[in-house]
Specification:
heterodimer; A: alpha/beta; five-stranded parallel sheet; three-stranded antiparallel sheet; 17 helices; 13% strand; globular; B: alpha/beta; 37 helices
Amino acid sequence: MKNVVGNPARGENFFRREREVRKILTSISNGNNIQIAAPRRVGKTSILFHMLDEASGGYKYVYVDTESIDAEEDFYKKLLKEILKLPGMQRAGEKFLKTANSFARRIKGLKILEVGIDFEDDHVAISYYEDLVHFLSGIELDTNEQLIILIDEFPQTILNILARHGIDATTRFLQSNRTLRINPDILDKVRFIYTGSVGLNHTVAAIDSTAFINDLNTLEIEPLGKEEAALFLAGLLATRGVVIRDIAREHLLKKLEWLIPFHIQLLVQELLRMDLSNSSVDCHHVDLAFEEIVSTRNDNHFVHYYSRLKTQFKGQELKYVSEILRIMADSGCISQVELFDKAVFFEVDGQYRKIIAILVYDGYIHHISNENVYRFNSPIVRMWWLKYVY
Amino acid sequence: MNIVYNPDQKNRQELVSEFVVRYNVYKDIMGDLESSKMKHPEQHYLLVGQRGMGKTTLLLRLKYGIEDSAILKGRLLPIAFAEEQYQISELANLWEYVAEYLEDHYGFSGVYDAINRHIQDDHFEEKAFEIVDAELKKEKKNIVLLIDNIGDLFHKLDLKEIRRLREILQTNSRIRVIGGSTTYLEEVLDHQQPFYEFFKIVRLEGLGKDETIKLIIRLSEVHGEKEKIVKIIRDTPGRIETMRILTGGVPRTIAIMFGIFLDHEHESAIKDLYKILDLVTPLYKHRMDDLPVQQQKIVDAVARNWEPITVKELTARTRLVSKTLSAQLNQLEKEQIVVKHDTATKNKTYMVRERFWNIWYLMRYGRRDDREKIIWLVKFLESWLSDDEVKRRIESFVAKVKKAGIAGEHLSLLSKAYASLKNLSPGSKLKLRSIQEQTGEKIVMSDEEWIACAQEEYDKGAYLESLRHLTETRDLFTKGGIEFLLKLLQPPAITALGAVDVSLDRTNTRFCWGFMLLALWGRVINVRFKHDLAYESEPEFLTALFQLLIVISQKEELTRLESSMTFRLLADHIRHLLSKGLYNVIYKLVDETSLVLDGRTILFRDVWKPLYLAIKCIHRREELMKMPSELAGPALDLERHITGRDRFVEVKFDGLM
């Protein structure tokens, strides 16, 4: 297993996260369309790719990255295009097109060429949305086979359309997506899974369109469990012929606390930079790796935690957030009471619950219920905060 | 100099055989490429490093490595992009370039024409990509795009195209990218940008010790100077480390400086240095030009300061608010332009990381006044040479100047630079002082430095020379000076000095005075310890001493304390001689000793009247009554001191001069 950073981990480089995959499969089998919510770098896209590559649950998957799309029509065109790339789909498509065209020529954007199906870009009256609806409702899949459409960077697409075409067009876009999902003709054949590095809920809430996504089942991707993390860690090190002593592994996991794959990968990267005698990691190396991980060299992995706040919050809200994170970084945690008290001071007591919820969703902090306090998810982020923000 | 600037103009064999550093990075990436099945999209890389850090060379080495790899050969096709990609202004051009490259280098055909047929299409880029992708699929080939200065490419694409490129790289398993960049690009740093956290960033840092040695050995082989270098590594490994620190471990700068590294001769090294500073200009100028305006301003202030500078000082010089300044400094540190130092206090200090770059900057942009004009050379010499080498070079420089072997601009430049060196040893200063007439460069030495020089000669047993340096002090009667005098008063120094002829060259009055003082003091001590003096030689000694005192009286070269002490000793000595009954000898000497100075005969008794009168009135007290009152007082005091009647009265010598 290679230490792949940035690009989603695929194939043998993906650490199998059975728990998360099972959760998604259960939701699909319950007939849901899904949005996957998780902070950055928890591994959402890698999980989707894993399901795609493994055809998990016996479904047919299609992955569509719509990050650059900024028009509704292009979105549906891309979906259609990617679906047609699926094995066997060309044939099923041709068969369907011949029948469909002989009837009402309802599909205008596609044509059959010698080499297969091509897109009819020049046709003026094309609606790829219509075409997609007709295509999905018309094609025949094998018995009991369902098509799962994985749409990545969907919130970015919403933002792109908003920026280029304005709020009405964006609302229409969300609406047509919803109509597509609940269309009775395709409901049994097709399921949609949306995800993206920007939170879908915030994006949609900002244009008062929450109603258009309330049919989606929200699933959260959790960090790794301790055993999973230990396996992942050992796997990454083993690829480079390095072993970690039991005591050092325990030490590392305890120190890391928030076991997201990315932070484990960063630590491994630091460990492998070291001059390891006997190719073996001990506690001392682990401590050094933690020190190194917050060096200026690695700044780019953490600075977004800080800069994102400025895009997410403005004015008093930003001051409030900065202050409570400072307290948490400084003293380890902050009580619910103090959160409220500070909110009154910064005159954001009306919004403070929403603010805390965003910080929790975005992976900054979590709640410890038996003590009723909040603290940083990741001690590494906290260390970074102490070093660079204040 | 192709070797230095244009790795892509080297032939394959040269580049491969000269590739001795960054080997670990190369091995890691090659290892990844060779073990990648490319069934799914694979890891993309971004090599980040300042200009000259070896990005282009590494990318080329990877290209050759892929072409030579038994595993990758024919399966993975490297597509190399020139450093400047003028033909690319939109994403579609990238695919056109790939199409052309595939045709020109790997025998593909018709790809470019196929793309061109769609040039009028609304979705031209999509078409272009699909055609390239389909060809690769058909031919069962994968490609790796080796894009130097990938930031330039990113800047040409609009946001939509950037998003599109990311989509492609994230989903297409036939293409992978290894890019190079001088900075951490905004595109990968900003969390709102598509390529945020997308690449595996490999930071090319300055070379460490081992790699520097490897590089230098390789360079020496290329220049046919291996023996010389092996000797340097064995005998003076510190020089390699100096080179590494001065160049910040930047391989290109090391290669450029290699020439002067070998050269011990001053003038030719300086000539080379000029040449080198010229050569590095394109490299170094870019480094500044690459920075955003605000960072340029900060780096300018840091560079001009040379020494580590605090944020507070920088705030004053740049007039930027400290928050902005700190953020920018942080970024500059990350880009390896500046380096941060902890201090004993909470304040951090910053300086330019690559010292040679700083030198270049001072030379090019330093102020033009006299002192600043040569500061770059001073800083270069300070950084480049060890204390021993400075010493050696100054010795050889001085020797050449004395033989008139150096003249003109070089003489003035070097003498100024050497004179401005910090921590110059007293010995070296002394050497430079010996040619100050030729150079016109006045070397000022502190009393401590003169004493250190005296010590050096003393250690060599050159006592007279030691004394000569000692008397160069502005005030001999400081703690250090007196301690040293006492040392000279003991054997073996005093014995050796006693054998020296007293007729010294009086043009160096202080030196003569010092010598006489020692002799006088030696006599006083001898008497105190009841050693007998050779009285017959006293007149000669005293005549010489009195004549010297005449000179001193005309030149006013002694401090008040120095002259007071001299007279106290002299009075002690005369008292002793008088007590032995040598009154007439003394009186005669005081009365008659004279010296011709500038054609004028000067009598000792005229210039040292109180002494003369004191001596006179010891014998005839009534003489005192004839004296004017301003002389009678000091003379009486002196008379009392000489006769011992002042045992409990402090004699005031101040009035004697």
